[in-house]
Design brief:
Elements lengths: L4 H19 L8 H11 L3 H5 L9 H14 L3 H26 L2 H12 L2 H7 L5 H20 L3 H17 L3 H21 L1 H4 L11 H17 L3 H14 L11 H10 L8 H22 L1 H20 L13 H25 L9 H23 L5 H11 L5 E5 L3 H8 L5 E2 L2 H8 L5 E6 L1 H7 L1 H10 E7 L8 E6 L19
Parallel strand pairs: 1-2, 1-3
Antiparallel strand pairs: 3-5, 4-5
Length: about 500
């Protein structure tokens, strides 16, 4: 399908807008996982980094990309996040290539535009982790997978093997997605053998060719070659997370219902219209998925298999079901919503055009719907720039500004990792109640910073009991990360409570 001039211009403008939106506040303060990535992996010598998979927090391919970016531009929040921006914008281009064949020119362009201004895609594109890279590699692998089945060639299946290996080197959860590819291929081969006369008329010659097998084998070899030095550590890391999930403060995340709640909470900024927006989005997605099923059944099958397959595997492994495991599906979901809006609105437009009372152009309803959906996305996007992901920098600045000589600043729980390794290395870490009691017994005012409150209350229950009894909450600094609020406490010198500082106080640092 030839690319029209207007189509190329709209796409170029959308990608330019996407890049601009992801550049805004790219240098905002780092959150826990980003600090951990920087201090535990990116700063390592290359040889040590390549051999370190002590935790699933190491998105290996991203850590290498971030290391190269930091080496080129110097260490900063924006240079650490730069690879995520690049892959985020690149994923939009691949979605357009995939979507214009599955949904058509206009729905594909609109899906790319909605994702370009979409809160979640912008958020992850400004997150120094491998999720936008994972999105890029899975989209590109899917595009090549479908084309390879349509027009088998050694080049396409070689490219497929590289994409799979790159995705697996970025994040191990890519295995769930590529398993969906394998299942869809297996079903297609089985159907071809059961009904050869029918399937000989199919446009998917790859089901009767050895090319896909070559692609899968190459993907396995490349993936194994990249991960051989890490296999033992990977098995231990997965086992550690699986074994510890039941007793973890985050154990509630093992339930799909908790994950669904978090996803639905993402539209809370739409206020009273949020339930209506959700219902409309579901209707549009179902309608769009149905329309694409007729145009590109393989694409729909891949994503229809991936989501339940991922849930089953995560449940079987006793893993926490984070919404980010399904970030790879976001492009397809937006494509379904866009396609559904286009199909429904076009039908409405043609119906109105046939009516003497409504001599409207058939595309007007879609234009109106597109404007409404874009406005809703923009409202949600504004939140991304209102706060950093976690405001550790603001907490440190507040304490340093308000403390007087002799005051002690400390941290506890998960807040300690980013503070001791990046934001405030000189601050002591409170590990237990006895340690905090000793500091309070010195008659000094103690400032305490916490984060991830539910985790702190379970893992540092003894410390937090003293905090509730002998400290005042001075500041509650919000962040765009779920449960990302950073809290600042000050020990109580007397019975009179200290005035609380809210997120709206002008005295708070930017």
């Amino acid at each position: 399908m030839k690319v029209e001039r207007w189509e190329a211009l709209v796409l170029a403008g959308t990608l330019a807008l996407a890049l601009a939106l992801r550049a805004v506040k790219l240098d905002a303060g780092l959150w826990y996982d980003e600090v951990f990535t920087l201090t535990h992996f990116v700063r390592l010598p290359l040889g040590e980094l390549l051999a370190d998979f002590s935790t699933l927090n190491n998105h290996m391919f991203y850590s290498l990309q971030a290391k190269a970016s930091v080496a080129l531009f110097g260490e900063s929040a924006w240079s650490l996040r730069l690879p995520a921006v690049v892959f985020g914008v690149a994923s939009l281009y691949v979605l357009w290539r995939l979507g214009r064949e599955a949904a058509g020119r206009v729905p594909a362009l609109f899906a790319v535009f909605l994702l370009a201004i979409g809160y979640h895609h912008v958020w992850f594109s400004q997150n120094a982790r491998g999720f936008t890279g994972l999105l890029f590699w899975t989209l590109l692998a899917t595009l090549i997978f479908i084309r390879g089945l349509q027009r088998p060639s050694r080049f396409l299946w070689s490219a497929y093997g590289v994409c799979v290996a790159a995705g697996m080197y970025t994040h191990l959860s890519a295995a769930f997605f590529f398993a969906a590819h394998a299942l869809v291929y297996g079903v297609g081969v089985a159907m071809n053998r059961l009904a050869p006369a029918v399937n000989r008329q199919s446009s998917f010659a790859g089901f009767r060719d050895s090319g896909p097998v070559y692609g899968f084998v190459l993907a396995g070899i490349l993936t194994l070659a990249l991960n051989v030095p890490l296999l033992g550590q990977q098995v231990r890391a997965v086992g550690k997370v699986s074994a510890g999930s039941a007793n973890s403060p985050m154990a509630e995340w093992a339930s799909p219902l908790r994950t669904a709640h978090e996803i639905l909470a993402g539209v809370g900024d739409l206020g009273v219209i949020a339930p209506i927006a959700l219902i409309v989005a579901v209707v549009l997605a179902v309608a769009g998925g149905g329309a694409m099923l007729r145009r590109s059944p393989l694409l729909v099958a891949i994503y229809a298999v991936h989501i339940p397959l991922s849930l089953v595997i995560l449940w079987a492994l006793s893993f926490r079901i984070w919404p980010r495991y399904f970030f790879v599906d976001i492009g397809f979901v937006f494509l379904c919503v866009s396609m559904g809006a286009f199909v429904i609105c076009e039908r409405i437009g043609r119906s109105l055009q046939r009516s003497a009372r409504f001599p409207l152009v058939p595309h007007l309803p879609f234009v109106a719907a597109a404007l409404a959906m874009s406005a809703a996305s923009t409202v949600m996007l504004v939140r991304n720039y209102a706060y950093p992901k976690q405001d550790f920098a603001g907490a440190v600045a507040l304490v340093e500004r308000e403390r007087v000589p002799g005051d002690l600043a400390v941290s506890t729980g998960l807040a300690s990792e980013p503070l001791k390794s990046y934001f405030a290395p000189a601050w002591p870490v409170i590990e237990n109640a006895g340690q905090l009691q000793r500091e309070l017994g010195s008659a000094r005012t103690v400032w305490l910073v916490t984060a991830f409150q539910s985790h702190a209350k379970r893992r540092r229950a003894d410390v937090m009991a003293i905090v509730e009894d002998r400290f005042d909450l001075v500041a509650r600094l919000p962040g765009t990360l779920g449960d990302g609020i950073v809290r600042v406490y000050r020990s109580r010198p007397s019975l009179s409570p200290a005035p609380a500082v809210t997120a709206h106080d002008s005295s708070l640092p930017n």
